[in-house]
Design brief:
Blueprint (H helix, E strand, L loop, with lengths): L23 E12 L2 H8 L8 H14 L1 H4 L8 E11 L2 E12 L4 H19 L7 E11 L6 E2 L2 H4 L2
Antiparallel strand pairs: 1-3, 1-4, 2-3, 4-5
Helix pairs in contact: 2-4
């Protein structure tokens, strides 16, 4: 049995060897929320931001980030993603970004989904920072994962309220 740890036998960081793991369909959903002022939300809705179409730009940024996850996160495996979707909707006083990543592989896509959600949120900040430097990116988290040895996992309501 392979030890799936980022530390080798002498305690040094290394990439986990997943070659003995089964190739299965793997899916992960992650979320980031961005708190924005009512004035900025109005400009987004009316597509009046000076930097252009925020929603389209943030979607593309999220997809690109998920695809480049292994270049950004040390020891993360490069994965052939079969699909990445980025949904952005208004949520309370801001935007909620949900990224869904899918692959057929030997390791999960949680990091790809989390990276995509984070970078999409950072893109929202970048496109709106001239209007308000006090924008807050919050509650980036994994919502759900499917596939692999550990099977299904979904964020519970009690975890939502933490």
């Amino acid at each position: 049995m392979t030890n799936f740890s980022h530390l080798n036998a002498v305690g040094e960081a290394h990439m986990v060897d997943v070659s003995d793991k089964d190739t299965t369909k793997r899916v992960a959903l992650a979320r980031s929320r961005v708190r924005l002022s009512a004035a900025i939300l109005t400009q987004i809705r009316e597509q009046r931001l000076a930097k252009g179409d925020l929603l389209a730009t943030a979607r593309i940024a999220g997809i690109m980030a998920a695809k480049k996850c292994s270049d950004l996160i040390p020891l993360c495996h490069p994965l052939p993603l079969t699909n990445v979707t980025v949904q952005i909707e208004e949520y309370r006083s801001g935007l909620e970004i949900i990224v869904r990543c899918t692959t057929n592989g030997q390791t999960g896509v949680e990091m790809e989904a989390l990276t995509g959600a984070s970078v999409a949120a950072l893109t929202v900040y970048d496109m709106c920072k001239a209007l308000d430097k006090g924008i807050v990116i919050e509650s980036t988290c994994l919502l759900e994962k499917q596939g692999g040895k550990s099977g299904e996992w979904q964020r519970s309501e009690s975890q939502e309220n933490d």
